[in-house]
Amino acid sequence: MRKAITAFVLAATMAIAPVANAVETTAQAQATTPLEPGGAAGVKQAQGFGNIPLEFWIAGGLILILAIVLIARNNDDDNSSTPTTTSP
Length: 88
Known about the structure:
Blueprint: H1 2-31, H2 54-72
């Protein structure tokens, strides 16, 4: 019995909710006035190549220099020479 009452209340709420929302939306639509016509929207410059801040150029240059140094660094640490011996 308790499940039946809960199901009925839930179903009734779901059925009534869109109607209540529609009445509220209609009342709000009647209370508001349309916007007055305005001027044209301003044109902004697109995000192009010239809009990059100086900090990004500096950071990019430092990263490039670091990459070149790491690549050009001589990593040949094979300096361990073992004497070659031959047995008679």
